[in-house]
Amino acid sequence: MTSPEPPGKESLDSAPSKALGTAGPKIGVFICHCGSNIAGVVDCGKVREAAEKLPGVVVAKENKYTCSDLGQEEIIKAIKEHGVEKVVVASCSPRLHEPTFRNCIKQAGLNPYLLHMVNLREQCSWVHSHEKEKATEKAVDLVRMGVSKAARLEPLEAREVPVEPTSLVIGGGVAGIQAALDLANMGFKVYLVEKQPSIGGVMAQLDKTFPTGDCAICILAPKMVELSRNPNITLLSYSEVEEVKGFIGSFEVKVRRKARYVHEDKCVGCGLCAEVCPVKIDNEFDLGFGQRKAIYIPFPQAVPLKYTVDKERCLHFKTGKCMLCVKACSNKAVDHEMKDEVLSLKVGTIIVATGFETYIPKKNGVYKYWEYDNVITGLELERLLNASGPTGGHLIKPSDGQTPKKIAFIQCVGSRNKKIGNNYCSRVCCMYAIKNAQIIKEHEPDTEIAIYYNDIRAFGKGFEELYHRIREDYGVEFIRGRPAKLSLNPNNKTIKIRAEETLLNKITEREFDLVVLSTGLVPSEGSKKIGKTLSLTVSPDGFFAEAHPKLRPVDTAMDGIYLAGCAQGPKDIPDSVAQAKAAASSAAAPMMAKKVRIEPLTVTVSEELCVGCGLCTELCPYGAPELVQSEKGGTKARVIEALCHGCGTCAASCPQMAIVAKQFTDEQICSELESALVFDGKTHAQKAGHKKKAEAEV
Amino acid sequence: MGEAEKTFIGGLHEKLVEDKIIDESQLEPGFAKEIQKYGGKDVMTCLQCGNCTGVCPISLKIDYKTRSIIKFCQFGLKKYTLGTRWVCATCYRCYEHCPADINPAEVMIALRHIAVREGVIPPFVKIAATNLVKYGQSVKPDPEIDKIRKELGLGEVHSKHVDYRHVLKEIAVLVHASKYDKLIGIEEEVKV
Amino acid sequence: MSSYAYFFGCVIPNRYPGIEYSVRWVCGKEGFDLDVADIKDFSCCPVPGIFYSTDKDTWLLLASRNLTLAQDERREILTVCNGCLTSLLKATEYLQDPKNMGKVNRVLAQIGKKYTGVAKKSEGRRKVFEPVKVRHYVEVMTKDVGLEAIAAKAKRPLKNIKVAVHYGCHYLRPTEHQTFDDPNDPVLIDRMVEACGATSVDYEDKLDCCGAGGGVRSHVIELANSLTQDKCTNIAAAGADCIVTGCPFCLLQFDNAQKEFSKDGIPVMHISQLQALAMGIDPISLGFDTHHVSAHSLLRKLRGV
After folding, report:
1. Structural domain tally of chain A?
2. Global pTM value
3. Do B39 and B63 have their domain in common?
């Protein structure tokens, strides 16, 4: 920084415009009153007077509401009349009206990036509302700084990139399915990638849904079939996303289609192969309560209805023998020689709908999930209640297959627990326990049911009504207390729950035949991998982070990547569907426009100065810089403009000062600092010193 | 008055309960902060789930509920905690199970700190402190046991050694520096 | 192997010297010949139920004093009591905060001591300090000596003896302290019992509290005894011949309480006494005379009578 110039007329010329030569750009300054928001504190007249005297300023105007039509017209008029080349608007925060004023000066024929906004409201009048004189002085300083920077603004062109009208949906649960259908019906091509052999997600495992009691698979299956038939959707099941490169409009995606060992185009889903397969395995879909074969479909309504060979358990893969399924198939669909296939796709937008898993209690814990047969989780109960489940819908005790007479539900298992780190509410457990209690009571009205809860959250449409009915019509007992101890009676396998019933103010012990743990929702295992592949951030609860918790619930910080369903946080089916539709609509916007503007407020790397140290690639939160082989030789950093958000981290850190942030160049920032500290050739300190001297003399 | 009515009224003991309604005059403002000062974590985060009471061995035996103590601390009902402060066995089961990550045993310890600073000092505390200062151990040596030690071929309890006297002096210095002697009332023994 | 310092605490030397004898015997020449010394200046740990409960500053000062003694000799503290373990281990945790260490050292300076931790290595001119290690007898036996070595030395395996193991609250909790065993499913003392040839029986509510700690025994003895009675009922139902524990205070509680509710009572001993028995010590040296519940029936069973 240069030392202050000695006072004198020359100093005015040696003020900021010196670097620009004698004929600097013509600058127009527009000061806003913002009603009384600014004018009530800052004396805008004084600010305008001071602005008029600044070097380069050809016009300085005040306006009551600059952002209004009238105000904007005045700006356009002034620009044309005075030949203004660069504009300073001194008003509110640029976060509010920067786009407004950029458009405004564009209409006047100027490059929209030759605008600089000075914040006289949030950073001046609103925070210094009790010190009007000082606020006015500050406003004068701020405008002077702004003019100095504006003089050095360069015109920039927003680049437009084309948007491929194709979308990738990762995850085939209800959210992924809905998003894919909406996009396809809008006319876009969609690739739906699902890691399981069938789409459907967790919803396909549920029995009935709350609060209306709709059968889950009955309402989901038609959507699944519709998806498989939609000509715009390519369903890639039993596949995983391996790599994603590129940026909004042109993502390059590699998808691995895992080998099913069954040709999809030949398999008709008749099931003859499974009938003859000798290997029986516990079924993942039924959570260990049912069985399947080594060649299988996960459930009867699977889409696509194609069989898959479980490589880990198939006898042929283990021992080389047994080709019973091959012989049984009349279409010759089974082929043990199949290999994985890797597809390369180009898509414009991506929707992440990777869903959730349920919390599994730990071994030797209080709830004895692993130790006692008759302690099951909420999802296991869904399978036992499901008419197409392993017991045909008859609820049985796992220990002896008898019907349970007394059932306890324990809420908040794995949720709302700071000790284990899941310090959030899983949102659906209160209602699914109530819903399941109703189903059980409908089947066996004599069953005694007790729900051990901490709070009951019945917040949605129709929820409170069900909560009321379950107490009034079905007589389910609600016990407020967190169970402290579960013990087993070895003779009849009943489980004794000891808890302090806080509303009764007594410690009680009650016996039950079956205990259902209402386990919470946790992010799925696969989602961690997807998060890394796509550079997505997570919230403290472990689910993917949305761009803004209130106003941008389906966007992520990465342009072109959207979130839908439980991948973003625990929610029920209506909310998942709503969010999926929102994500589809957000994804459609750039695809509909066919092109998207990349804000030019990005960084550029000077290849001459860059030494290829790679520090910028490590620091960038968006993965924008990459090291490439330069044509001129050597490894250099290059910034993918579409990924760059202009945060400036790399520019500030580059040890070679090879990176320049547009509109925040070193020269621009330094000029602002200089004009803040030097005025009339004196520093503020010197001014204050003269004042004191003057006071002392008096 | 007929026989039936007499029985009815006679059978119902309408003893006048002291605080039917608890109003602000019975609360101690800042009690929760005082608990925090002595190491009990923020009791205000307690959701009163009752898990601590369920696992507490003391709550099973007497009219004492861990959860209620935390509630009294939250609310400022200090007088309801009196008489319950010295029954916690510090087994830490409550801490292990608490979903809000509060340590009720530490809250009991904070209550004990407050009790002692108000002059409520159980005799066993004073005895142990006196023993510590006199013998360097909280348990007083027993001549019968000393005989058995000799029979077994073990040396004397090392606190009986002549060299141990400087240890007693050191203990006295520490106990005086932390003002514990004044707190417990053993100034006589601790002559520094 | 490491070098240790015996920390017997208050109860063992003054009430159950037999335990002191068996610990010395097992760790000494007749046993595993560990590098372990006596630090004569050790005082009460101080007992957490009294001092940690009433004034944490005093507790920390007294504990730090004990820790500096071990620090200056560069020895690990070998405790044989759950209470001492908790008290000293907690003190090392508190002392990791420099503010606490500063406060403590300002007072310790008055007696010419300073707690720094044990200097482990030097990085240039800077020394790296580790907190003083405080280890329970069970940890040292199972981790440093090893179960195979214990079994190898069991010259008189305690066949047909059924043992009920009582771990005790401060062995298991707070769970952050318990680094060598599983606080929800502890096994190490059971393994040691089996290495000595005996059978460790499972009984209901094995991990429950004995009732003595936190001042309960001193303040409301009926309450403590009631908890002990519950445990003894379960232990008797499992058919145990004796109770083995790693804490002398739990031992004292079991030993004294049984006469209140039981005619004969089940003998209680420290794990070191059981070990010494299996290693061939003359039972007289175990000091069972100081125990209130007679061990005659157990010793007779051992002799095969």
Report:
1. 5
2. 0.83
3. yes
